[in-house]
Specification:
Blueprint: E1 6-13, H1 17-29, E2 33-37, H2 44-47, H3 79-92, E3 97-99, E4 105-108, E5 114-118, E6 121-130, E7 137-138, E8 152-155, E9 170-173, H4 177-187, E10 192-195, E11 202-203, E12 206-207, E13 210-211, H5 212-219, H6 229-235, E14 240-241, H7 244-250, E15 254-256, E16 259-263, E17 266-269, E18 274-276, E19 279-282, E20 286-287, E21 305-307, E22 310-311, E23 316-318, H8 335-350, E24 367-368
């Protein structure tokens, strides 16, 4: 390692909600650490969402450690509120964040320290937290390439508002919360269709006068870990929050089965039906991309191998993945629990006192993260 390499106790890769949460705990410990964010500001995943997106968790459940989320506790914040809150959070705690700094390669030197290559240099760290979140590389089916160049198509990450698309028939592909919300956003201005591959059960947004997440916290379901039998069952099935199918139907959104192929301006569905479209929004989720990590962190399917964020590589952690430990692991107001857990492991390793339930060596047995979209 050259003398010009900046060295830290901990480098956190990712300046979203997970990176900020663990940054708060590392600052409390007095660590020399740095948060890297490849975008020009914190929380790019929220900046890249459509204008009208609304969280399905109420403000009372959306706070990171040390700073309450402002506003009516029982209301549901919009995108701009979340961005403002996260920017304020980073400023309030004066977290050391380097923006516009993409981690191009993460490796390990012969002496055991981690090396992070940037466009303009490299960093070294005793420990590293990969907090790049669950929204990494957009997933679009291969048959999308068969659509005519005249058809405007984009992944949900590229969609901002209805005016982004031509006024003709629009197909949203994907029957999750994202697909339904975007279809509803479009329905007032054009003929809108929704292709649903697997129908997901819908949970009520409110029950007996209380928000869904009040009940999940009260009953402890939000904290059921993926290592429990119930947590394993819950992690295998995504759910809609609120009566989204009913709202979509009321707004005139036309539902179809799974989209299976395309040709020219025509999309074909699994039941043989076809639709000519002017535009398509692919709300088809994401795939994990850890190709920049030159270490055996992932399995053959790209899923990180870990136990509650502690990987089998000593000193390397992940944070903010869906179902990293429980239903709240990737949610704004609940990621702090995993962040506190990882921060404790960092402190223990820095003090050379490995926790009894953490992997002791790089070959320790770990579980594979269950990371659904």
């Amino acid at each position: 390692m050259s003398d010009g390499t900046d060295r830290y106790e901990v480098v956190v890769i990712g300046g979203g909600q997970a990176g900020l949460a663990i940054g708060h705990y590392l600052a409390e410990q007095g660590r020399r650490f740095l948060i890297l964010e490849q975008d020009h500001d914190v929380a790019p995943a929220w900046r890249d969402r459509w204008d009208s997106i609304t969280l399905f968790t109420p403000r009372r459940c959306d706070s990171l450690p040390g700073l309450e989320f402002p506003g009516e506790p029982d209301g549901y914040p919009r995108r701009e509120e979340v961005l403002t809150y996260l920017q304020r959070y980073a400023a309030k705690f004066d977290l050391p964040i380097r923006v516009g700094a993409a981690a191009r390669r993460l490796s390990r030197a012969a002496g055991g320290e981690f090396v992070i290559d940037l466009d303009d240099g490299r960093l070294a760290a005793d420990q590293v937290v990969v907090a790049t979140g669950p929204f990494q590389a957009p997933r679009i089916p291969a048959f999308a390439a068969a659509l005519s160049a005249d058809v405007v198509q984009m992944h949900s990450t590229g969609y901002r508002r209805p005016s982004d698309l031509p006024a003709g028939p629009t197909l949203v592909v994907g029957g999750g919360n994202t697909g339904y919300q975007i279809a509803q956003d479009l329905a007032a201005s054009r003929e809108t269709h929704l292709a649903i591959g697997t129908r997901q059960p819908a949970l009520p947004q409110r029950l007996l006068g209380r928000d869904l997440f009040w009940w999940l916290v009260k009953t402890g379901l939000i904290y059921k870990s993926v290592e429990t039998r119930l947590g394993q069952r819950m992690s295998q099935k995504e759910t809609l929050v609120g009566p989204l199918p009913k709202i979509a139907k009321r707004l005139g959104v036309i539902s179809h089965g799974r989209a299976i192929e395309a040709s020219g301006r025509t999309v074909t569905f699994a039941d043989g039906g076809q639709l000519e479209v002017d535009s398509v929004v692919w709300a088809t989720g994401f795939r994990y991309d850890h190709s920049w990590i030159d270490l055996p962190i992932a399995d053959a399917d790209g899923r990180v191998k870990h136990r509650r964020g502690v990987t089998e590589i000593a000193g390397l952690y992940t944070l903010g993945l869906q179902w990293q430990y429980n239903r709240g692991s990737a949610l704004l107001g609940f990621v702090k629990d995993d962040a506190a857990f990882i921060a404790e492991r960092i402190a223990a390793r820095a003090g050379f006192a490995q926790p009894a339930d953490a992997p002791a060596t790089e070959t320790s047995e770990v579980t594979t993260a269950r990371q659904g979209d």
